[in-house]
Amino acid sequence: MPGLLRQLRSGGARCPQHAGSERLRRTAFRLDCMDTAKASPTTRTTHNVLTAKSISCDQPQSIPAGESFQVPSNMKPLRILCVLAFTALMAFAAPTPAPSKDAREEAAKFEEEKKSWPKTVDEAVIRILSTMPEKDRKIIRETSKDELIQFHHGWGTGIRNSFGLWRGNRALMDDCKAKHPDDASMIIIEAVWARLQKEKK
Description:
mainly alpha
């Protein structure tokens, strides 16, 4: 038996039909396992014929009795990558739900409102003065420029909301040369005040 084992390991044994075949390697694995089991009963040698790259007969891996075979650490990143790729594929493959009727109506209403926004300071001033009562004109006309800050809330809030300064009226913001809607609304208020001052003269 030892002589046959040495022949199988060294490749000396030849079979007319199966020389160098998988059957010879499996026989060598079994014989090697038998020898190892006799020599050390507290350990067992694991051979995997199908994964000869990681476990071979020339380099058997001894595993303490009672423990299970662990996946090689170099395979774990590949498994994680496969899971992430599958998750991303499922996310892209999921159908996007169609917007509801209310959402479509709201979007259409918003687009229509955007068309009414003034795009320049001059347009905003004309829009404000066209609806301003005479009593309010008188109040603004008689207010000093330094005191216009008192209109930041109330009147200024109405300007910011109705002219879309908080909702993307980029054209008006650029014409005001302002980076914040609060600053833009004050520039419009000052422009209305200046126009009323000319009317007073």
